Amino acid sequence: MSYVTKSPWIIHYDGSSCNGCDIEVLACLTPMYDVERFGIINTGNPKHADVFLVTGSINEQNKPVVKQIYEQMPEPKVVVAVGICATSGGIFAECYNVQGGTDMVIPVDVYVPGCAARPEAIIDGVVKGLGVLAEKRAAMEKK
Amino acid sequence: MDRITYIIAAVIAYLVLAPLAGGILAGVDRRITARMQGRFGPPILQPFYDVFKLFEKEGITVNKVQDFYVFCFLIFIIITGCFFFAGGDLLLIIFTLTLASVFLIVAAFSSNSPYAQVGAERELLQMMAYEPMVLITAVGFYLVYGSFNIYDIVAGSLPAVIYLPGIFIGFVYILTIKLRKSPFDLSMSHHAHQELVKGLTTEFSGKTLGLIEIAHWYENIFLLGFVYIFFAWNVGWSPVFAVLICLVIYFLEIFIDNNEARVKWQLAINSSWIAAASLGFVNMLVLYFLVL
Amino acid sequence: MSTLFFLILFPLVIAFALLVLKADQARGFVVKAAAAVTAVGSIYLAWQYFGTNGDYFAYESEAVTYGMMAVEIGLAIFIFVLGVKYKKYLASLLVIIQAPIMVWFELSYGHGIEVENNLFIDKFSIIMALIIGIIGSLICVYALGYMKDFQHHHHDQPDRRPLFFFLLFLFLSAMFGIVFSNNLVWLYFFWEITTLCSFLLIGFTKTKEATDNAFRAIIMNLLGGLAFVLAIVFMGVYYQTIELNKMLAMGMLGYSVVIPAALLAFAGITKAAQMPFSSWLLGAMVAPTPVSALLHSSTMVKAGVYLIVKLAPVLGLNPAGIMVMMVGGITFMMASFVAINQSNAKRVLAYSTVANLGLIVACAGIGSPAAVWAAIMLIIFHAVAKSLLFLCVGTAEHNIGSRDIEDMDGLFGKMPRIASYMIVGICGMFLAPFGMLISKWAAMKAFVDSGNIFLVVFIVFGSAATLFFWTKWLGKIMAIMARRENIESHVHSEEIMVLSTLATLTVLVCLIFPVLSAFMVVPYLASIYASVAPLAISSGNLYIMAAMLALVILMVIVGYGKTNKKIVPIYMAGVNAGDDLSFNGSIGQTLSVSLRNWYMESYFGERKMNIIGVLSTSVIIVGIFSLLLGGVL
User: Fold this and answer.
1) A75 to chain C: nearest residue by CA?
2) How far apart are CA B23 and CA B136, in angstroms?
């Protein structure tokens, strides 16, 4: 049994979001939803994190940043794109600065649509991500 | 039980049981904190899950030496604890603890990372803040029992706290710093999870971070041990009493943690040094007159 | 006895030889050979008198006494003239007062006093002789390479290196004289010679700053010299003896030698740059680094504490002892505070020296056997580690062009061996399980036992401060910075040899110190004290410390620098430019990361700390002397 699923630490990055999804992510940490029950901690440090929550779309300026943060995370790791902007650019998809969703830069494992994505949906997305995490850990172990 | 057997038994018990006890205490800490915040909280065994997960992560590091320093930190924290529970010399324990802490600070410095470096400077400041009080505590015990050895201190005829009330209060004050609780969690924060990103521990990951967590468990146990020796004396039931007091003090620390906001470093060092200079100094003065 | 003469006269002869040798090659050869001979000589001395409990030698000679007097008069005139020339009239004044008193005394009373033993040797003197002979010689060898660079940097000025090396060896000779003299007049003579050497060496670069600082040093030391003279006069007039051992014996029998003890302690305080006289040592940092290492950390200032430690049996709970204790304690705490605020490496080392000397002085002031044990161990460890640090800083300075700690980041990449030696030196100064920590431990216990809670407070806060400034320096040099080019090939081989020897010595001394204690220090204590109570630190703990050191060394050898983990960049909020040294700032700029240590000006500002230290110590000294004067009148 892998312990990664029992203690998933998240890092949350805001690409170019309106902050709506960010606030919903933080709301998950509040007493109302309390994700710490699942051992989830919001660590701001990629080196400590297992789950990368991205909100907002990708533009030229944050492309290298997202890539760098992703690369500094140790395996096994999953990426959860929270909100429709992170999934595909959302209603801003045709703006001149928006290049698209997170999967333009890094491989995404779970998409959580919504504008803003609801805390329940986010939690659900993270839990699905844990499943992927467990698979990745098993693959790592086989190597 | 003769001395040698006692030492071996104590050391083995410490080596095996301390991380378990420390981890459980950490879990209880998080649970109580969550309840105080109106949340549900993680399972009591969560710290263990965290550490096991960290050991499962890919091994990455920023240079070739920082993991070595962290490993030295762990080894010397364990050695400090072993000295403590073997009933050794208080000053030896304090100095070995200093050595261990310097290893951790140097590990953070070695990364040359902005967050880690500021975290390390703050950690160093915290050390400077609590060092006087800790040394005065040792001196206080010596003045009462004529010996720095813990073995002699717990065999006294009265609990130490009766002679050392001021020093005890001062010690609990700086215990907040050593346990890394608000308002003095400047260098790396457990509960708020982020201070200067992760402060001192920013560049550590995976197994290394896990080792630091385990080292903190070992450390917390012997820090509570310090509280214990204030309340132990040569009566049969005193160990139980002292352990209860330790738990009460630990709960008090959790309470303070949840009520206080982190302070600026100036306040941290000012208040700690004033506590040492006033509570510690006055207590020692009174003791000198009593001894005379 | 011939070994003693050899050790005093041989460096003197070499000094004069070096004064005339102008060629680099010849000088190099002579210095290295002389250093080796001196070192071997002191080791031979240690072996020869290994079992001594204090051997005293008569050696009568009118010629020597008159010769010394002639040299003293000559020196007095020399300093007087220089004082007038540079408008430092205080120096001239002090010399005008001091020299005639000495001469009058020697011609009137001095004749009548019968001196039984002029020279002596005991285990403490052996320890000092080993420090002077081994460490002093190593520093002279280091100076060869260093002064070559120095001359290169100052190529527009005349090459006065013959004078420089003359003064170094003259100084070594005088130091041997100090630790072998039992006759206080002889001691005074050699003492003043070291003052002269210090004066000329501080002013070596002949800049205005150097000259000012040289005069500051000599004025403060002359003040101490004056006190020395008064002490001799007192002993001669009241007790008809000018021998140190007789003075100590009288004191322990119950005769009051408080006044000469206080005066001699005052002389020691000025020589050891205790507050309020610490500014001369700070000013002396303008001199070339070998000077700072030799005179102003490991040897000359040790003469000051040597005298005070020798006086320890007659210090304790009397006015002289209390003055010494408190001055030492306050100096330790305040100097440690100021060191936090300094970024110039030599100034940090200077303040740290002042602080550690304060600790030694405070231990001597307490006067108990445990305290004196701590004092002697502190002398040994401090001499080795501090000289190592000064020389490392000197070498680093010549190669990176700065002596500021803030410019030493990444030193590990640029000069790995120098950085390693510096690390050994720094750890040796404050960290368990190295020796200084052990001595500080013993000192702490001695302070607690003495009943002086103020001392306990001083050492506790001072220790916290020393922890801070050493660790932040340590962190600075241990930072692994990317892309550091190794420039170590430019360092002279003599410098590397000396540094590695000193680093090895630092570690070795920490490993064998239980042996040192049992065979040298404890017998010395047994010979001067009636009963030697159990030492501050149990032998069990001493061996635990040695074992911990062995463990650290083993761990470093086995595990350092070995990892097969993937190396990733440091975290810079995702905008790391890729090289760990700079990041992508706003508007497309690339900015470099700059990390600075904390200096806490508002807490530990130099001016504020110095004012507090100087005021409090001055009040104590003036107060004690007023008390004593009142008692006499």
Assistant:
1) C566
2) 29
d(C-alpha C166, C-alpha B202), whole Å = 55
Which of C179, C181, C196, C214 is closest to C86 using CA atoms?
C214
Residue of A nearest to B206 (CA): A48
Residue of A nearest to C567 (CA): A72
Cα gap C630→C633, rounded to integer Å: 5
Q: Bridge partners of A81?
A: A54, A111
Average pLDDT over residues C80-94: 88
The reply to whether residue A68 touches residue C574, judged by beta carbons under 8 angstroms, is yes
Task: Mutate one of B115, B122, B124, B194 to test the C interface: name it (highest C CB count within 10 A).
Answer: B124
Contacts of C553 in chain B (CB under 8 A): none
Rounded to the nearest 5 degrees, what angle is found at the Cα of C359, between the Cα atoms of C356 and C363?
A: 145
Say whether C598 and B79 touch across the interface (CB within 8 A).
Answer: no
Task: Kindly report which listed range (A92-101, B274-283, C304-313, C562-571) carries the lowest average pLDDT score.
Answer: C562-571
Residue C458, classed as helix, strand or coil, is helix
Min Cα separation B281/chain A (Å):
41
DSSP assignments along C518-565, one per residue: IIIIHHHHHHHSS--PPPSS-HHHHHHHHHHHHHHHHHHHHHTT---S
pLDDT digits over C242-293, tens only? 888 888 888 888 888 899 999 999 999 999 999 899 999 999 988 888 888 8
Averaged pLDDT score across all residues of chain C: 88
Q: What pLDDT score was predicted for residue C511? A: 86
**What share of chain A has pLDDT > 70, as a percent?**
99
Per-residue b or e along A35-54, where b marks 16 or more CB atoms closer than 10 Å to that residue's CB: bbebbbbbbbbbbbbbbbbb
Asked whether B98 and C467 are in contact (CB, 8 A), the reply is yes
**Residue C532 identity (one-letter amino acid):** V
Instruction: Quote the mean pLDDT of chain A.
Output: 91
State how far residue C414 is from chain A, nearest Cα, in angstroms: 27
Phi, psi angles (nearest 5°) of residue C553: -60, -45
Rounded CA-CA distance C414/C481 in Å is 9
pLDDT of B54 strictly over 80: yes
Q: What is the structure's pLDDT at C61?
A: 79
- Dihedral through CA C8, CA C13, CA C15, CA C21, nearest 10? -160
For residue C418, what are the contacts with CB-CB under 8 A and spacing of at least 6? Answer: C392, C395, C396, C399, C411, C488, C491, C499
Any A CB within 8 A of B202 CB: yes
CB pairs under 8 A between B and C: 170
Residues A37 and A29: their CA atoms lie apart, in Å, by 10
> Under DSSP, is residue A29 helix (H, G, I), strand (E, B) or coil?
helix
What residues have CB less than 8 Å from C84, skipping those under 6 apart? C92
Can you give the pLDDT at residue A1? Answer: 65
Q: How far apart (Å, rounded) are the C-alpha atoms in residues C152 and C248? A: 51
Cis peptide before C276 (omega within 30 of 0): yes
Question: Which residues face A79 on adjacent strands?
Answer: A52
Inter-residue contact C181 to C530 (CB < 8 Å): no
Q: Which residues 541-570 of chain C have a CB within 8 Å of chain B?
A: 541, 544-545, 548, 552, 555, 559-570
How far is B54 from B190, CA to CA, in rounded Å? Answer: 16
Give the closest-approach CA distance of C573 to chain A in angstroms. Answer: 8
- B194 compared with C454, residue with greater pLDDT: C454
Mean pLDDT to the nearest integer, C78-93: 88
Give B63-85 pLDDT, tens digit per residue: 888 999 999 999 999 999 999 99
Q: Is it the case that residue B18 has pLDDT exceeding 70? A: yes
ipTM of the complex as predicted: 0.93
Query: What's the rounded mean pLDDT across residues B175-184?
Result: 90
